[in-house]
Amino acid sequence: MTVKLVVLYTRPEDPEAFDQQYLGTHMPLVSKIPGLQRAEAGRFVGAADGGEKTYYRMAELYFADQDALNAGLGSAEGEAAAADYQKIAPPGSRLFVANLDA
Fold first, then answer.
1. Backbone angles phi, psi at 47, to 5 degrees
2. Does domain 3-46+54-99 sit in CATH 3.30.70.100?
């Protein structure tokens, strides 16, 4: 069953500096994680329900299954991406794992 790691980033103090680090360093690290099938990232531009934009940016990382996710995150490349996440993620940022139904 395909699994997806969903990362939600809260608004950083300096969005321009965050985006430079995120796009220039972090996502290239993420792209090297073994077993990663696909990565999608984007910046939120609005809330469809008209509410507060709680999150600034999101990423979705797809893996064949939970074992592939665990192996990828446990690899040297996964650990490097995780260390960079710890460095750049604003307080309140979250990581979720989802099993895809289809």
1. -110, 120
2. yes
